[in-house]
Amino acid sequence: MSNHQSPFQHPNEEVQASSPDSLTIARKQEVVQILKQVSERILKNDIVSLGMVRNLRIVDDYIYLRLYIGSHQHQLEAEIQTVLSSLTWSKKTYIQLCTIPKVRTTLAVSSGKGGVGKSTTAVNLAVALQLTGAKVGLLDADVYGPNVPQMLGLDKSEVKVIDTPNGQRFVPLEAHGIKVMSVGLLAEADHPLAWRGPVLHKIITQFIHQVEWGELDYLLIDLPPGTGDAQITIVQESPICGVILVTTPQNVAISDVRRSIYMFRQVGVPVIGIIENMSYFIGNGGEQIPIFGSGGGQKLVEELNAPLLGQIPIDPLICNGGDIGEPLTLADPSSKASKVFVQIAGALNVTFSSSV
Ligand code: ADP
User: Fold this and answer.
1) For position 95, what pLDDT does the model report?
2) 56-68 pLDDT, tens per residue?
3) Which atom of ligand 1 is found nearest the CA of 145?
4) Interval between CA 168 and ligand 1 midpoint (Å)
5) Do 12 and 116 lie in a common domain?
6) Ligand 1: centre distance to CA 220 (Å)
7) Domain range holding 63?
8) What is the pLDDT of residues 223-239, one digit of tens each?
9) How many domains are contained in the chain?
């Protein structure tokens, strides 16, 4: 590689010593156009639009890129090499594979602000996916309020570390058949996690890459709310193939979601859709009462061109499920909220055509 040292800089360290010349810019555009010819068969879209190619760099006659894929998509590497071999000026393409071993589809659950039911959604969606027969993992990366362990009755559990041929790994806990790992399990009870900057970055990357998940159809990552450093680090460091945004119908929650969508689009990760939580209350006669207003989710769908995956009603039993460690989707599968979660899980299965 002669003078091509360290081509795969960390995204945060990406410092351009000098601005790229016009030839490099033209070559980069040419490479992007060619990469757009490579299609992911299940998702029926090209790998650039799917956010799988990141950190594309042209250095002299060499191409460097990071490829973020699931465990079932390794053939894309060879396909990229083949299409790029048509470039007469390129001496070689270096591809750095970014994948979580044995994990097929990684999805993030995010929200513009706290308290809208993001973790509740992540937990119930994980259960719903598991009920469809999928193998599911849930990574609670909400460094500001990691409450997934409590929602699954795991808050008193200790995380084990094992030695593997690839180094030390965290062993995920298991609840209701779901593999669970949470930043909250590393903190003392009732102590806020005061991680910032490099420490936060290190902990987050450890959580993404040093957990022995085993075979998973889905890994859901419960992101911290908002659009700060922690979110961007997680999204950039992991093979997330899409983000599910949770919102409530209120206007303020919606403007936060709008900001989140722009952030994800800027870092090139597709937004799969929006879940509107606490959409309505079901009255005694079965009527839907929109306590927090209505139409918010729909407004976002139209404005931002992201589908509405489902509308979850307000259900007091959801709180109860969170408190006793048994998610509503398990405790009361016949409730309307549970049915919506199962319906969303079914739609995700259709999209990602998991092995289930
Ligand atoms: P976030 O992760 O966005 O901060 P949580 O999932 O912790 O939000 O939910 C905040 C609170 O709202 C919790 O007490 C939870 O039980 C409650 N909650 C969430 N969704 C619903 C719902 N659909 N109906 C009733 N309560 C809900």
Assistant:
1) 97
2) 999 999 999 999 9
3) 4
4) 35
5) no
6) 17
7) 3-98
8) 999 888 888 888 888 99
9) 2
